Amino acid sequence: MNFELLSKLPKSDLHVHLDGSLRIPTLIELAREQGVALPSYEEAGLRELVFKKHYRDLPDYLAGFGYTCAVLREAEAIERCSFELCEDAIAEGVRYMEVRFSPQLLSETGGGCVRALKAVARGCERAAQQHGAPDGIPFEWGIIVCSMRNLARGMSPYFDTLMELLPNMTQKELASVASIAAVRAAVEARDLHGVPVVGVDLAGAEDGYRPKYHREAYREAHQAFMHKTVHAGEAYGPESIYEAITACHADRIGHGTFLFSPEKIADAAGIVNKDAYVRALVEHIAARRLTLEVCPTSNLQTLPVFENDIRKHPLKQMLVSELSVVIATDNRLVSDTTVTRELAIVSEGLELSPEAVKKLVLAGFKAAFFPKGYVAKREFVKKVAERLESIYQENGL
Fold first, then answer.
1. Which of 139, 297, 311, 333 could tie 128 with a disulfide, CB 3.0–4.6 Å?
2. How many CB atoms lie within 10 A of CB 52?
3. Where are the domains of the chain?
4. Nearest 5°: CA angle at 268, between 206 and 296?
5. What pLDDT is stored for residue 42 in this prediction?
6. Does the structure show a pLDDT above 90 at 237?
7. pLDDT for 268 beyond 80
8. What is the mean pLDDT of residues 91-104?
9. Which candidate in 234, 239, 243, 342 is catalytic?
């Protein structure tokens, strides 16, 4: 399946961070307007110094977020960048997107978090209204609120204030408190302001910052019937994925890259046989149809172990194991990618059949935290499936 054909398919993007997906010209313009210092004010310069093809490691990959978050402090900028993200997605055939971000990284107060969520909603809705349904399928979207695993001074005014108010708390205790506040802002925005917040997430440095520290926040999200996803198994072992499922009630797992890696198990207490533990965990994920949000380019850029070769990524093993897998972008700017490009990398590198590609594409819509209810979701997925079948028939697939 060539790139042109893949571009015609209706697609989803379930794992995409707003602050990692700005347009570079917009970043430069906002930085000039707001007095934010950049290492270059030329697109070529930023791509050479910050947003690269290849990164040394995850910290190098994350460095650019310091600049993008710095220009997203005002509602107008948040709304604009949300609109542009959705506009870019619609142009490449994305018909369902879940925009995720941490409002606490962009705000000073809890009320500011709600205002940030409203701004994202205005931008997404404006894009949906302006671009309609070019292929008969309307653009649908939802918002996922991210909590941060680890806090540090200077990350945002919100976190700086929290540290000043609670000076005797440990970093992990502060992160737990902030997660609870993020969930409450998400529920408030959804229930009191009609913002289509469809889920919560846990992001940030994984090693040393386990999901169980955010158990209480996820309990509140669970009680509020909020969908739940967790970044897990990206930079830590299978037990991180296990905790995401058991302590955080995760419906989906962000990345899950080291699911099949018993050697990555760091806390082996109570685990007699690491290989058996991994097999049981994989079977549990498969049987419960818990979805893995795989972001190929991002993983290849941040994890040198794969040597920039998709064939060394565990995605093939995930598919062979019949796991529920979706392909997503993670960060469209930082990884310089689109869903179409991700599907091209996967389909070519793993030599997937057209039917396998179709299954991957449909999985993204089926796993969506759709904001308009189950019945509407079924109708939406049916419309996507019919469109896919039509494209396949037109191209003799």
1. 139
2. 18
3. 3-394
4. 40
5. 97
6. no
7. no
8. 98
9. 234
The answer to whether 207 and 264 have CB atoms below 8 angstroms apart is: no
In the prediction, which pLDDT does 8 show?
A: 96
Q: How confident is the model at residue 267 (pLDDT cuts 50, 70, 90)?
A: confident
Per CATH, the number for 3-394 is: 3.20.20.140
**Residue showing tokens 């502060």:** 174
What percentage of the chain carries pLDDT values higher than 70?
100
Answer yes or no: is pLDDT of 133 > 80: yes
167 token code pair:
């000076």
Residue labelled with tokens 């893949």: 6
234 part of the active site: yes
Please give the pLDDT value at position 60.
87
* Alpha carbons 188 and 231: distance in angstroms, whole number: 23
> What are the Cα distances from residue 53, in Å, to 13, 44, 56, 169?
21, 12, 10, 39
Q: Are 9 and 385 in contact (CB under 8 A)?
A: no
pLDDT digits (tens, 9 = 90+) for 41-70: 999 999 999 999 889 887 889 889 999 999
Taking the complete model, does pTM exceed 0.90, yes or no?
A: yes
Any idea of the CA torsion for 114, 119, 124, 125, to the nearest 10 degrees? 90
Whether 85 and 68 have beta carbons less than 8 Å apart is answered as no
